[in-house]
Amino acid sequence: MQADWWTFALQGVNFLVLVWLLWRFLFRPVREVIERRRQQAQEADARAAGREAAAEEARRKLEEERAQVARERQALAKEMDAELAAARDGVLDQARRQADDLLAKARRSAREERESALAAARDQVADLAADLAGRLLDEAGPQAPGDGLLDRLMGRIADLPADERERLDRDLADDGARVAVVTAAPLDAAARGRWAERLDAALGVGGRLDFETRPEILGGAELRFPHAVLGLTWADRVARARDLLREGGDHA
Amino acid sequence: MDTNPLSPDILWHLGPVPISRPVVTTWGIMALLTLVCWLAFRRPDRPGGALRTALEIVVETIATQVHDIIRRDPWPFLPLLGTLFLFLVAANLSVIVPGLHPPTGHLETPAVLAVIVFLSAHYFGVRARGAGDYLRHYVQPSPLLLPLNILSELTRTFSLMIRLFGNIMSHEFVVAIVAFLAGLLLPIPFMLLGILIGLIQAYIFTVLAAVFIGAAVGSVETA
Question: How many domains are contained in chain A?
Fold first, then answer.
């Protein structure tokens, strides 16, 4: 076996040249490609990280907005509940007041109707009683007053207050002033004499006395002066009784 | 076989310089590799095709292997180790081309490659650790080990050379003997075996070179 040193040297040079050639045409381009890809991958990672950060920021903002909306919704719901409660309370108060008013009005109306019915019934009873008394007196026929009635009239004249008596005297003092004795049935001559005598003694009427007959007074008598009437008739008593019946019911 | 197969196969003389067959074959391999790489990466701005993708995969695989061995950034070592692997693959597989003889089947080529690895290991070691620190490891743990360390450096370089040369040369001999004795078709399985041997020897040579360089730069513990 022999070694050729020229071949040894040439092969060494050849290999070193090949190292340079492959570095120039293979390893350096591959390294550049790898570096470029790594850089692109890093840039893509950076972009992805940026987008992820942006997405995270957007998600955070969305969560905040959602929480804000939820808070506003709760506040609105609470406010609406308060308004509804206030409105409900207002409506209930108004309804309660209206119900109380209606109830009071109904009670008042019922009471008024009851009172009205009672008054009407009372009036009707009074009217019936007065009609019944009047009809009974009417069926009994006109009654001429007796001396007792004359005594009571004299008593009433004597019991007149001073101012009324003075006004009555002034009334009788006028010229032509006359006094009419009104009865339901005509008085006989004796009765008229007694009436004229007693009235003249009490009032000084002398011959200015007239006697009239009016059956509608049913009984009793009344004295009619020019500007006053003093009477004790049964019709007045029946009317008085009717008024007393009505007033008695009202007082009750 | 009236000529010595281990003797230099001089094709012609360029002045006083004899041009042997391994040199010419190496030129052809250099031209082929350079042409392939130029075709693959002549337009780096455009997307590459299948050839470019395959070359990227090969380079990245070599870089990964180198990184796994040296435990450092592989790119400073890749021009040497990558070129070593690709050249050895091409040279060893040239046996399947009729009329070609692998340059690694002649002693000069494995020898110069082993010497280059030997010198490169020291170069990278000094550059990585400094001359003093690098030379100090020859006298550690004891200065008495200096002769043994130097002998170890020489013998491992020698074994690197002999391993590659012996395998490729012997395979070439076996194929030639079988073809001489049994005819044309019988050597085909031996040629397929030669492909496997060529790839394995290229891998072993490159890995051992990476281990030596890694030990020199201080990344690999050697026995």
Answer: 2
